[in-house]
Amino acid sequence: MTTLQPCVPTSTLTRFILQQERRFPSASGELSDLLNSISLGTKMIAQLVATAGFRGLQGYTGKTNVQGEATQKLDEESDKILHELLGSSGHFGLLVSEERDTVQVASEGTAHAKYVVAFDPLDGSSNLGSNIPVGTIFSIWRKRSNARPAAIEDFYQSGRNLVAAGYTVYGAKTSFVYSSGQGVHGFTLDPTIGEFILTEEEIRSPERGKTYSVNEGNALAWDAQVGDFVAQLKSEDKKRGTPYAARYVGSLVADFDRNLKRGGVFLYPADKKNANGKLRLLYECMPLAYIAEQAGGRAIDGKRNVLDIVPSDIHERCPFIVGSKYEVDWFESLRR
Ligand code: P6P
Q1: pLDDT score of 178
Q2: CB neighbours (10 Å) of residue 320?
């Protein structure tokens, strides 16, 4: 049996984060430390997802989360891992998780902590039983004032104030994609050494793509703009380069990751059933909008850039149209 030969990493996530920090002589190193705490948590979650089937961690807990969604055992376990790791990092004052009704104080003695973080510990977990890729999504802000401990209003900042954001995909490989405002960079987990290795530096979203991602089962509830856009994407028009191919995994990180790298557009729009769409602003739409814009793409809620929205509730939902600039501009041009 061949043994997996670890590659000799030229750049690991840990090293890369430190290199980015060195560009800012005044940096305290706290952001680097907390990004490394998050990456450690995602490595542990990757292991859980890969082995849940024979560790009795598959399936539902019988409880529902604040969103009213049935909670999987892995949702809870992933949430616990991130709470414990981030809480003990000493750099987070407050945490918001999709799985928890209210903000959580990171841990004792972090009143001085500079940052607050919001995360979806395991997005797409309803797909777990069928081995469809799932992932973790996170956003990091500085507190609005260092003169006090973190408070819920530190989450009520637009995405323009994000200091870093990213996501992982637990799939055929475990990937970690993040930005701290200096471009988007992708890493692949080498399980033989437990390190994320730099595999995609400076990811740029293609100007336009050839695929669109939307749940067409909601078509009867769409408004005219969405209906017109999807009809045009499906039409036969050589000049416009249509029809596009439909690609919808039903797992946000999987659909987003493909469109980010190959071009294309993802829509979870407002519709007659969900006036604000299904996805959550703080820990799904904002972090992915940040990544999309850093890579040259766009993200809107149908009217505004997602990064310009100032949240007023930690679990508020947001219609989400994200992807290559060409397609998002095209969608916007159809607004009635
Ligand atoms: P629908 C998964 O539950 C999720 O939150 C995202 O990962 C995914 O993009 C979306 O919901 C799928 O929703 O309504 O199309 O099944």
Answers
A1: 97
A2: 28
Give the per-residue pLDDT at 165: 98
All domains in the chain, ordered by first residue? 13-200 (3.30.540.10), 211-333 (3.40.190.80)
- 183: its two tokens: 């471009």
Cα–Cα dist 36/87, whole Å: 13
Cα–Cα dist 225/112, whole Å: 47
Cβ–Cβ contacts within 10 Å for residue 237, how many? 11
User: ∠ at Cα 82 (139, 195), nearest 5°?
Assistant: 90
Listed as ranges, residues in the chain with pLDDT below 70 are 1-9, 107-109
Within a 13 Å sphere around the CA of 181, how many CA atoms are in the beta-carbon half?
Answer: 12
Cβ distance 283 to 311 under 8 Å? no
Q: Does any ligand 1 atom lie closer than 6 A to the CB of residue 166?
A: no
Ligand 1: residue of 122, 252, 271 to mutate (most ligand atoms within 8 A of CB) is 252
CA of 136 to the centre of ligand 1 (A): 14
CA of 252 to the centre of ligand 1 (A): 6
Nearest CA to ligand 1 atom 14: 215
pLDDT at 21: 85
**Residue 174 β-bridge partners:** 170
The Cα 285–Cα 60 span in angstroms is: 25
Identify the CA nearest to 292 among candidates 187, 162, 190, 197: 162
Residue type, 93: G
- Rg (the chain; Cα; Å): 20
Closest Cα to residue 318, out of 266, 269, 259, 249? 269
Among the listed residues 269, 274, 251, 247, the one whose alpha carbon sits nearest the alpha carbon of residue 328: 269
Verdict on whether the full-model pTM lies above 0.85: yes
CA 127 to chain centre: 16
Alpha-carbon distances, residue 30 vs 37, 83, 92, 269, 279 (angstroms): 10, 17, 10, 37, 30
- CB of 6 within 6 A of ligand 1: the answer is no
Predicted local confidence at residue 3, as pLDDT: 65
